[in-house]
Amino acid sequence: MRGSDYNQVSRFLHWMALAHPAILESSFLIEESLFKKQVRDTLHNHVFVTGLARAGTTILMRTLHDTGSFISLTYDDMPFILMPNFWHILKRGRGKDNSYTERAHGDGILVNTESPEAFDEVFWKVFLNDQFIQEDKLLQHEITKDVIKKFKSYLGLILLRQHSNVEEKRYLSKNNNNILRIQSLATAFPMSSFLLVFREPLQHAKSLLDQHKRFCKMQKENRFVLRYMNWLGHYEFGLGHRTFNFETTTSFQETDTLSLNYWLEVWKNYYTYALTLNSPNILPVCYEDLCTSPEFVLKELFSKLHVEKKIVHDIKLKPNAGLENILLNTSKPLIKECQDIYDKLVKWSRL
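Above: the chain sequence. Below: its structure as tokens.
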């Protein structure tokens, strides 16, 4: 989110638009009835970025978006996220603050109303009726043909909202929860690419732990932040945290979310499942390779994605830092397990 300083009117609007599934579904049906005839059949070689939070998915998504080859949902589409065209008409003529602010993560990433962000999870929450969301976990699931049909219609409406010549544009999504349905999506969009981003486990777990502490504190002080994240399906950390539950998931040995061991188990759980994926359109991307050789990695990635622009400057990723002060009580066998998984992911990414 862009920060926690929403005024009362804005909070009420977000509550009305995002907290009521019936309103969300109705808004989509209204959007379809008004604009579906204008939607042309679009190219299906879209790009979906996913990965465990703090893997660099946002930076990768924004780097791809900056090439000008893709269209994404942006903060300007909030809060009526399922009716992008009608909401745009309603807002026409109103001034908007397009200044940059640091996002709530405190990680130096600046956003404004035109910044792309992960909002299409709202669609899945509505049309899957939150059935994959349990009190303490998110369930792996398959998507029916009917819901896939609705999602394809939604993509067409998003492309129509932002560009008249939709054949020239492709949809770009960043959604960390898509791992839960990635096999259905990869089958439904065989011409599309699914970028699975991963990061060295100790550094990744430490970043997740830091964000968990940060958002727990923030959400205790401002309950709107918790509600906002729950409405959007962001359960990665904070008071609303839920783990991913896959067919490969085993019981966690550590349950204390303030322990690095816990977040290493989160990492292990996520990427153990990732290694079982064998669809040819799922492409692993290594965070450390992006840090050390961004031009080479992006050149290779652009070639695979058929992106014409060859050079993107200033991909800003934080290099790994020392962990000496937090390793004392960290399970060495768990570190070894995670490192073995990481090595396999690296090997896969360089095939």
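The longest strand covers residues 193-198.
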